[in-house]
Hints:
The chain is mainly α. The protein contains four helices and no strands. Helix 1 crosses helix 2.
Amino acid sequence: MDTTIKIDSGARDRLATLAKARGVTMRALIEEFAASSLTPQELQDRAERTRAFLASEFGHQLSDGETAQLRVKMRAAQAASREQLHASDSARDRAA
């Protein structure tokens, strides 16, 4: 069953631009995002599996401090990636 999602026009326009750049529809783009994004519970489950893997394969138990440091590094990497994508989109928009 189809449904309607209400968002502001800026977000709609950005989704349209992203979809066009990928050669897909906005529907396909949103469906891809929903399918590939993890819920908080899925993230927790993945973290627990990772801890168990590191313990069983390498004999290393991640401390809470190490976990926090890794989380900070991952967030920084994600922010840098988003910034790079935003800069690329801005440059492409200016060139168009």
